[in-house]
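Technical note accompanying the year-one report. For the benefit of new consortium partners, we illustrate the data format agreed upon in the data management plan: each record pairs a sequence with a structure-token string. No post-processing was applied to the example shown here.
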Amino acid sequence: MDGFTRRKEQKKQNILEAALALFIEYGTEKVSISEIAQKANVSQVTIYNYFESKHNLIQEVIIFYVDQISDHFDEIIYGNAPFPEKIHQIIFNKSEQANEIHEDFYQYLMKEHASGVSYIEKVYAEKSLKSFMKLFEEGRQKGYIDPFISNEAILAFIHIMKEGMKKGEVSNKILPLAEEITKLMFYGILGNQRPDRNE
């Protein structure tokens, strides 16, 4: 990559990072192109040259944000931490994301997800599902996941959760409950103090 292309890509990266930070804090509606330009230290014309419109910029920011989350998720799953620590990191990470994201930006993400042809759906189908199954297989091999629970049942549960989140009345309630729902997914209603089967 030559110097001009590298500088161009870095400038685009700076715009995406600035826009994401502002959208997470204030939502997409209240943030103007001029505010993004100021934070990214570029002109408004530069932003329009790269993205043409605020709508296109938001779409690119969503891709940027989803890739960040997906990469971080994979770092946890394919890392060397013990299985219980991986689960703890995932739950803690979900909680932090829920606490920091503005509701307006979250609703925009959910609307994209509900479309069924979104980038979120693409990453889920091509990458996240595989990572989930790798995590569950590791947990099963190390004795943390019930061997009698099949991959088919796990996949069905994940699918039900994913499809449920596409519904507006459900997605509106999920954000403040993100940590609890993630705990419920990994620990069940008995928490991590499950009684012995023979009791």
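Partners are asked to follow this layout when depositing records. Residues 3-26 form the longest helix (24 residues).
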